[in-house]
Design a protein that fits this description.
This protein has helices at residues 2-23, 47-59, 152-159, 189-192, and strands at 27-32, 35-41, 65-71, 75-82, 108-111, 124-127, 144-150, 163-166, 171-175, 179-187. The chain is an alpha+beta fold. The strands form two sheets. It has an eight-stranded antiparallel barrel with strand order 1-2-7-5-6-4-3-10. A two-stranded antiparallel ribbon has the order 8-9. A hairpin with a 2-residue loop joins strand 1 and strand 2 (35-41). The longest helix has 22 residues, at 2-23. It is globular and about 40 Å long. This is Peptidyl-prolyl cis-trans isomerase. PPIases accelerate the folding of proteins. It catalyzes the cis-trans isomerization of proline imidic peptide bonds in oligopeptides.
Length: 194
Amino acid sequence: MKRFLGLTSGFIMAISLMAPHAIAGTKVELITNMGTLKVELNDQAAPATVANFLRYVDDGSYNGSIFHRLIPEFVVQGGGFDTEYKKLPTYSSVVNESNNGLKNQRGTLAMARTQDPNSATRQFYINLNNNQSLNAGRNAGYTVFGKVTLGDDILTKMAQVPTGMNMSLRARDVPKQNIVLQQVRRLNDEQASQ
C-alpha cells in the first residue's frame, strides 16, 4: 500500500508541475467600441465549443457584429447579427458540452442556443452575474467555454447601456446604443500578457 501511495503522490506531483502549461488555454481579444476584453478559452473542458468559437474568430466574421441582447445582472449576448440587425451566416451547430464542470459565473463566456441543447452555432454570451440557472443539472444547461481575464470594468460599462424593444429583431432587451465587436482575434503569449 505504501508503494501505491508513493507512486500516486509522485504522479500527482508530476501532474501538478505540468498543470500550468496544460491548463493554459487559447487567448482571444474582443475589441469593442466600449473597450477591450481579453478572454482565455478552456480548450480542455470544452474542446468542440472552443474549436467552433475559434472558427468564427479565424474567419473574421465576428468583426463588426454586435451584442444584440443585454439584461443587466444577467447576460450580454452577441456575435450573431451585424449593426443593421441582419443575421450572420453560421457553420453547423456544435454538441452541448455543459457537463464539463465549468459554471456560468460572472465573467465567463458560454454558448447561446435554442431549446435544442445541441443547437449552438455562433452566438455567445458573457455572464454579468453568477447564473446558476444556466448550469447543467435537471436541464441540459449552457456550455461555458472561457472567462474574461481583463476588462471587468468594460462589462460593468456594457451593463449600464439602456435597452428597449427593437422591431427589426422583434425582441426586448436590445441595447439602444450599438455595442460593436470591432475586432475579435487570437493572441499569442506576448500579446496576452500585455
